Amino acid sequence: MNLNIIGYVIYLLITTIIILKVGKICYKNGNVYVAQLIPNHIDLCHKTNQILLVGYYLINIGYCAMTLISWKKILSINNLIEVISIKSAIIICSIAVLHYINIFILTKYIQKIIN
């Protein structure tokens, strides 16, 4: 029995929930962070944070959809759980790396503007 369709649905559900939840948290807390980097420009801070959120959603949801191509045939429940766990872990690590890259780039860019 091929369990790939079940795996796709579970994987996309898990990763979409994670992506949306993390995006919401980063957006809410990012407003404060960006406001500290660019004082006296609240509108610019909100727009920058919105652009970061849209980019975050597009990259992560697109990557999740693209990874479905590389799945091999899943024949057992154990294999299904293993594949979903590995693929979800890759997404979570990617989100963490992108988050820190964004913070680093924003910090360096704002410091360059200020100096």
Secondary-structure blueprint:
Layout (H helix, E strand, L loop, with lengths): L3 H34 L4 H26 L9 H38 L1
Helix pairs in contact: 1-2, 1-3, 2-3
Number of strands: 0
- Determine the N-to-C terminus distance: 62 Å
Shape: elongated
Please report which band the strand proportion falls in: under 5%, 5-15%, 15-25%, 25-35%, 35-45% or over 45%. Answer: under 5%
Mean pLDDT: 86
Quickly count the helices.
Answer: 3
Question: Helix amount, in percent?
Answer: over 70%
Kindly name the structural category. mainly alpha
- Order of H and E elements: HHH
* Stretches with pLDDT under 50, minimum 5 residues: none
Main beta sheet: strand number and arrangement?
Answer: none
Radius of gyration: 18 Å
Any key phrases for this structure?
elongated; mainly alpha; 115 residues
